[in-house]
Amino acid sequence: MQPIEPRPCPLEDLGDPVVFAKDQPEYQPLPALVRPDGVVTTEWELTDQDLEKLIDNWPNSRLRLQVHTFGQPLQPLRIEVV
Fold first, then answer.
1. What torsion, rounded to 10 degrees, do the Cα atoms 44, 48, 49, 51 define?
2. What pTM was computed for the model?
3. CB atoms within 10 A of CB 35
4. Angle ∠(54,59,64) on CA atoms, nearest 5
5. Burial, 33: exposed, middle or buried (Cβ in 10 Å; 0-12, 13-18, 19+)?
6. Residue 51's pLDDT is what?
């Protein structure tokens, strides 16, 4: 999966554009939209290999999310298809 520029939503203010890790070569830059209340929106584009893996493993396909909390409490997460 590749992070992509999030599309603004006409029905919801998703926030202002930022790029996380823009100047950190050890990380991949992550474009995002950030709202004042702290909600961060990112979008990811599935590669052909991702889609093949999902289809080949259907109905047992899974999406795995790993969050680096660095020992801090886990924040609420939401994953959706857009």
1. 70
2. 0.77
3. 13
4. 50
5. buried
6. 93
Answer yes or no: are the C-beta atoms of 14 and 35 closer than 8 Å.
yes
pLDDT < 70 stretches in the chain? none
pLDDT for position 29:
94
Residues β-bridged to residue 3: 44
The 3-class SS string of 17-69 reads EEEECCCCCCCCCEEEEECCCCCEECEEECCHHHHHHHHHCCCCCCCCCCCCC
Contact in structure between 68 and 19 (CB atoms under 8 Å)? no
User: Which pair of structure tokens corresponds to residue 55?
Assistant: 């289809």
